[in-house]
Amino acid sequence: MTRAFLALLRRDLLLAIRRRGELLFPVIFLLVVVSLFPLGIGPGPALLARIAPGVIWIAALLATVISLDSLFRTDFEDGSIEQFVLSGHPVSLLVMAKVLAHWLLAGLPIVALSPLLAIWLNLPASSVSVLVASLALGTPILSLLGAIGVGLTVSLRRGGQLLSLLVFPLYVPVLIIATGGIMAAADGLPYGPFLGLLLAGLITSVTLAPFAAAAALKISLS
């Protein structure tokens, strides 16, 4: 099972590298969204610092959503998922490999760019580390929860529109907790409980989401 997992992960990473345009699209989208806010509301440092946590997290959430639709679609259309089911390996193993590849390609660049975005929006230095930690814990949750929605909509012709309606309600608690922790750090208040909730959400998502997404894919195959 470990060899199958690593083979699937390597395959998805290689395919993504060959499609460099699709690979860069979430990052470009993130940068464009964050850059538009100072132009729209003005460059006031105090105002930008106050809205920075929400702006960065909303941009990260939207960048994740627009990259989710292709998570299983190619494998579904070419029959790879059916072949994997017939191979006898757990479908949850396929889900975990593809979610990890998705996070490495879409989530990790967001985490890496977040300090620069924080400086751009004048976020206090005391909050930058909390921003990075919240994204490191929260973006994998977005990928895992999104995989469930993709599994349910992958067989639909316009599943991307329905996908957004399915996953946004699941993302709201993550958004509220993450931004609350960053704002608490900016105000000099304890932020540990917020990061603890994100860690608990990540553990729960890693434990349950692959099986839920696998069940959703089986429903789409039937």
UniProtKB/TrEMBL annotation:
The record, for InterPro entries, names:
Cyt_c_biogenesis_CcmB, Cyt_c_CcmB_bac
Q: From the Swiss-Prot or TrEMBL record, state where the protein is found.
A: Cell inner membrane
Q: How does it sit in the membrane?
A: Multi-pass membrane protein
An MF annotation (GO) of this entry: heme transmembrane transporter activity
Which controlled-vocabulary keywords does the entry list?
A: Cell inner membrane, Cell membrane, Cytochrome c-type biogenesis, Membrane, Transmembrane, Transmembrane helix, Transport
UniProt GO cellular component terms: plasma membrane
Indicate the transmembrane segments per the record.
21-41, 47-72, 93-121, 127-150, 162-185, 191-217
- GO BP annotations listed: cytochrome c biosynthetic process; cytochrome complex assembly
User: Where this protein primarily resides, as one coarse class?
Assistant: membrane
Regarding protein family, the annotation reads:
Belongs to the CcmB/CycW/HelB family.
Q: Report the function annotation for this chain.
A: Required for the export of heme to the periplasm for the biogenesis of c-type cytochromes.
Q: What is this protein called?
A: Heme exporter protein B
Organism of derivation: Elongatibacter sediminis
Q: What is the lineage of its organism?
A: Bacteria, Pseudomonadati, Pseudomonadota, Gammaproteobacteria, Chromatiales
